Amino acid sequence: MRIDLHTHSTASDGTDTPAELVRNAAAAGLDVIALTDHDTVRGHAAAIAALPEGLTLVTGAELSCRIDGVSLHMLGYLFDPDEPELARERELVRDDRVPRARTMVRKLQELGVPVEWERVARIAGDGSVGRPHIATALVELGVVETVSDAFTPEWLANGGRAYAEKHELDPFDAIRLVKAAGGVTVFAHPAAVKRGEVVPESSIARLAAAGLDGIEVDHMDHDEPTRARLRGLARDLGLLTTGSSDYHGSRKTVGLGAYTTDPEIYGEITRRATGAFPVPGAGGPRPA
Question: Rg (Cα) of the chain, in Å, rounded?
Fold first, then answer.
């Protein structure tokens, strides 16, 4: 089985619609894909409706969190999307995205970048506006060559010149809320240092003690020594280890299935979840 547990669609900051995403996942030879848009589950229904035969969908979301002044992302899998407290927190984070993005656009203008809000809004479309949309605008304007080049201290990285903070969950609350909704939690790309400051291992240990289920180890932003270190940490803390592409369509160079999760780990995630269950595809033929 080939299992990719971290992808994004146009419901947040990917470039594939949910329907395109699942079709592309099947074409890439995946057996299981998780749709984990930022702080939203809006893409799930469309993904399920288009799910090709032979592909299984894991519903989820990537929750924006902050601990001790450091931002982090928490993947929540197979939770009940209608659980009111978790739904309310997701809405608070989403509602803060537009004023935050407008602040970053203003900061860029103050730095001499001729970016307009209308351009960013056009790029975001119906998705939850975020830094990747602003980064795409910088690419269009020729300020940087790639989206990744915008995520530096010079521009949009955490603490960068044009960075603006947003409403973020306390990760301990995120773990509590996802678990109360029957879900499973995995700390996304915990050692992605090129994105900015990362959470120390002592904090990961605290999160593990609070019920964190796993950490994402095999990820494009982790080199081999980092992956080995994280596997050792997970072993010491009794955490599951996952791998995934963090696919954003054409917004990033990584392809679907570039990194995958061991089937036994996937089985344990589904065993722990009680809020929702993986959805087997029946929406159409699997691409040849």
Answer: 18
* Number of other CB atoms surrounding residue 113 within 10 Å: 16
The token duo for 273 is 């979840």
Say what the pLDDT of residue 158 is: 85
Half-sphere exposure of 258 (CA within 13 A, CB side): 18
Entry pTM = 0.88
Residue 121 tokens, joined: 């809004």
The encoded tokens of residue 100 equal 């935050």
Per-residue DSSP letters for 162-174?
Answer: T------B-HHHH
List, run by run, the mean pLDDT of 10-residue segments along the chain (288 residues).
Answer: 97 95 98 97 97 97 94 97 96 90 98 97 90 96 94 92 93 98 98 88 98 98 97 98 96 94 98 97 62
**Ramachandran angles phi, psi of 217, nearest 5°:** -100, -55
Residues 6+ apart with CB under 8 A from 269: 5, 58, 77, 78, 184, 186, 213, 214, 240, 242
Residue 56: name the closest of 26, 82, 27 by CA. 26
